[in-house]
Design brief:
Blueprint lengths: L3 H27 L6 H26 L8 H7 L3 H10 L1 H8 L2
Helix pairs in contact: 1-4, 1-5, 2-4
Keywords: Membrane, Transmembrane, Transmembrane helix
Amino acid sequence: LKSPVYVKSRPYQVLYNVVIFPVFLWVYSRGIDTDNVKVFMLNTVIQWTALSIIIDYLSWVLIPHKFRLTHKEFYIDYQPYITLIYVAIFISHYIVGFFIK
């Protein structure tokens, strides 16, 4: 993961998460019949953020494979991008909420 292409792509990983998660949240919330869409979306992004953290830990740190990262590589060296990705997932309900009044 020291590839120059990967290193240059890091800032864009946050950007595509800012686009992808709100789109999926909007599509997902349209199919749910609820009285309070904003609370539903908040609960959904809390679950998505928690699941993302768990899946990232399992797939990038815990499970042995060719591209495995150490705790330091994933949680320290990958800053600020990993934190910004989780923030992007969490704020997706605000982005969608801005468009759904």
